[in-house]
Design goal:
heterodimer; A: 70 residues; mainly alpha; Non-ribosomal Peptide Synthetase Peptidyl Carrier Protein, Chain A; 3 helices; 53% helix; B: 310 residues; alpha/beta; 2 domains; 7-stranded mixed beta sheet; two-stranded antiparallel ribbon; 9 helices; 18% strand; globular; disordered C terminus
Amino acid sequence: MEKLKAELKEMIIRDLKLQGVEPADINDDDPLFEEGLGLDSLDAVELVVLIQKHFDVQIEDMDEGREAFA
Amino acid sequence: MTGIKKRLEALGHGVFYLFLLVGGQGGAYLLLFPVVLVYVSTSRAIHRRLGSYIRHRFPGAGGVTRFFHVFRLLLSFARVLVDRGWLGLKKGARLTGDFDNSELLLAELRRGRGLVLLTAHVGNWQTALAHIDLLGIRVNSLMHYAEDEVAKHFFDLKDGGPSFNIIRNDGFMGGMVEATAALSRGEVVTIMADRYAGGPGVEVDFLGEKARFPAAAYGLAGATGAPVAVLLAAKTGRRNYCLHVWDLIEVKRERGGGYGQFAPAAARFARAVEAYLREYPWQWYNFFDFWNPAVDRGRAGKGVRKYGKA
């Protein structure tokens, strides 16, 4: 589980090109959007695509999205 | 909308629908002429609302000519409203449509990348959307869907309801998650791409001046790899409409590059709408100052970012 979390943090930083942040800076319970990492709707689209590509998991609707990205 | 205004609007619609039932489409068209003429002659508000477009589309037009353009535009819009009511109310009523280069869309769909279909508030777009099922694949419309509007969408009036799935843009992340999933399944997502109402946007030249256009559609296409088609509908006769693909766009995107990178794609969309308006100048239905809309631009195109982005 810890390995998966680390992979996800690395993927978010690398693929969404977050600047000046290391995986260790992101707490497990940090929200991704708005007051958390400050990601926007374009990042949400990119995350959905990335998660499908890397983990073969399809996020289908806003209820799943809200839960997955909370 | 206030209760009284809503009731008055409902009464107006009711009277008009009654007239449609008695006089049919042709009768309603005849009634429109004097009604629109009186309205255009007495309402300053309509000239204010349309003045900006008329100045941009017909630069140099004098007072009388501008009046004529406002009249033509409003008459054209009123006829589309009549068509919508007539199609909903009259059993067996139908418009005949031409989809003159639909093979372009079908070829893109066969590639299995999904398709972002951009349209605009021009022509009889709602009627055209209601007939989009001819693509033979599930169509999703990312839109603001006001269930309590008195002026129902045409597809609400159609037998069996809309022929497409509605993704509400007031949901989580503006419905982008569901739209992404639909494109991943190779489906079509339609988006109205002309009217900026806050959120991500980019400024591009449009009819001689910078105007702000929504950018979310290009982000969706860029992230998923789906092509973008500009599909605009025009009313070409009393009972005819024409669907035409005005442009096909491959959106280039750099991951993490933000919405600003989509300005070239939005500019292509704006060029396509300009080309449409050269052919159908009175089928533009954005009744506000398009170049200076009263929307909050404070956070347009920006995320609130804790760490910043390259």
